[in-house]
Structures are given as C-alpha cells and as structure tokens.
Amino acid sequence: MKIKNRDINIFSMSALDLFASGMGAFILLAVIALPFFGNVSKIPTEAPLECPKPIVCPKPVPCEVCPPPTPPGFKKLEKLDIVVVLDISGSMGDEIASLKAEIRDIGALLDRLSEQAALRIVVFGDDDFDQPVTHYPLTLVSNLAQIESYINSIYVDIGMGRGSNTREGESVFPGMNEAYRSAFRPEASKTVIVLLTDDKPHVGHEPRLNDATRQFVSIGNRSVSVRYSGSDANQRNYYEQLTRIGGGTFMGDQNGSLTAALLLALLPP
Questions:
Q1: Closest-CA residue to 192 (of 222, 148, 169)
Q2: What's the rounded Cα separation, in Å, for the pair 265 and 224?
Q3: Residue span of the structural domain in which 100 resides
Q4: Whole-prediction pTM value?
C-alpha cells in the first residue's frame, strides 16, 4: 500500500493564495458598488419640469382727456332743472348786469353739480306792461352760447312797450306761475326755482302765489328759493314764508353774488 504524500505542495498553495486574492478584490469592488445598485431602474425617469414663461401684463393706456377728480363722498345729480325768475323793474338793473356777467360761472357751477343741467330764464315787470312776463325755453347748460344770447337780450323794463309801471308791487305771481308751468324733464333728479326781486307781488296776488307754490312742490324733489334785495320788513317776512312753503332757501343779502345765491338754492335749507 502506497502511503499518500502529505507534504504541502508549493504549487497548490500558490493557487489557493491567488484564488483568495481574487475573491477579496471582488468583494471589495462589490461593497463599493452596492449603494449604486438601487438607483438602476428600467422605468425611464420623467423629464424635469420647466417653469412657464412669465406673462407680461399690458401697460394701462392713459386717457387722452381725463375728467377732473370727483371729491370723495360727492355724487352729482343725474339731471337738474333750474329756473331763474328775475324782476326786471327799474330798480333791478344791478341784478340784470350781474346775471349777464356771471352766466359763465353759473354754467360751470351747474355743470359740476349735475351730469346734465338745464337752465330757464323768466323775467317779469308790471301787470300794466304790454308784455308783463318774458320767458325763454329750458335749455341745456352744455348749450351755454344759446343761454347767453337769451340773457343778453334782457334789459330793464323789457316788455313795457306803451304800458306803464305805476301799480303797487310787481308781477311776481305771473312770473312765478310761468316758471311753475315750465316743460320740466320728468326724469330730472331735482327741480329748483329761484326768485330774484326787491318788491312784493301785486295786491291780492300773495295767496294765489302761495297756493301755486304748494301745488308745485307737492311733487317730490322740487323747491322754491327767494333772494330778496329790498329793505321792507313786511315784504321780507312774506318771502321768508314763501320759501318755507317751497322748502327752499331765503337769501336777504342785497349785494351777494348770483352764483352764490344759486348755489345756496341748490343746497338743503
């Protein structure tokens, strides 16, 4: 029986050493690469999201003619009808001159207070005139040139003709009654009548004027104001009473501006 050779062959040891060295290198590389294995996928990744391009808002276009700013809390009247009833007797020359001088200011005032204002002029003298009352149609303030032409045709004692001015008082009632019959616009937000005089109505006309005023203001948003430039206490008392009936404003300043008088007439008493 042949005894097995138990001597360690140098060549077998070399092979084992080589194998062990290769295995160690493989394990080292596997340990290094292992964290990257989880990132490998057969499903393609989505493309990165792109931010949308910013939208450029158009610049505001400036208006060619911008309206003047409205005061905070102020609201214009939609439509305003106003009638000026003017005494044209001999003592009222200054008032007639003031109306002619201030009509442009009055027009600008009414234009600022209302979206669409209209103005009418009614003048009166004495019942003994050939034409006691002279009147002009209600005209939009936007047609100021036409209103100016009406006013420029007014003069002291217009309509007298061959008549006279000797009776006590003036034709206040016929003048106011003509104003009350004006062709007011039914859609007007406010209707105002302003009487400018320095004398009383003819005898017996006061009760009739009071009744006509009550009937006029019985429709809403209407008022009657008076600027009395005379000095008689009884006449003043009467016109104060008339403005109370008319729900308007009484003005007794003899030298005040007509523009200011009209503004006061438009404001609550």
A1: 222
A2: 8
A3: 78-266
A4: 0.72
Query: 129-147: per-residue pLDDT in tens?
Result: 999 999 999 999 999 999 9
Encoded tokens for 269: 């008493």
Mapping DSSP to helix (H, G, I), strand (E, B) and coil, where does residue 178 land? helix
Summary mean pLDDT of the chain: 82
Q: What CATH number should be reported for the domain holding residue 114?
A: 3.40.50.410
- From 218, 199, 246, 226, select the one nearest 85 (Cα to Cα): 226
Reading the block at residue 97, the tokens are 């001159």
Q: Quick one: tokens of 95?
A: 């008032």
Give the DSSP H/E element, type plus range, for residue 47: none
Asked whether residue 169 is assigned to any structural domain, the reply reads: yes
pLDDT tens for 190-232 read 999 999 999 999 999 999 999 999 999 999 899 999 999 999 9
Question: Do residues 18 and 10 make contact, with C-beta atoms less than 8 angstroms apart?
Answer: no
144 within domain boundaries? yes
Q: How far is CA 27 from CA 16, 32, 40, 216, in A?
A: 16, 9, 20, 114
Please count the structural domains in the chain: 1
DSSP class of residue 48 equals P
